[in-house]
């Protein structure tokens, strides 16, 4: 079983610093509208980015597995936060919009690869949020 570690330390106010086991270190903050600092990572940014980057890597892996000639891949992710009357909130939905360009494969094969990528996306399989995939597939 793989284990991933992270450490955070308070830097005053609504600012923190994080260290990831992969060697990345950076400041993070609450969002500016919640008294945080602009221009640094927020937990909300990290959540959406975790979903997006994990799915992205699994799409690359699935394209390799299906022996696709991948020309380009970009994925835009949108996380929708629902707020409750008691001021608690959660990410109700994460929408991933891959724009993928491949050569010499059918649209159905690309759709199968995208579905396989989601199945093997550890982060996305761990979320309780609704996951929506809205692909734009271009075959050359």
UniProtKB/TrEMBL annotation:
Pfam families xrefs: OsmC
InterPro entries according to UniProt: KH_dom-like_a/b (IPR015946), OsmC/Ohr_fam (IPR003718), OsmC/Ohrsf (IPR036102)
Protein name: OsmC family peroxiredoxin
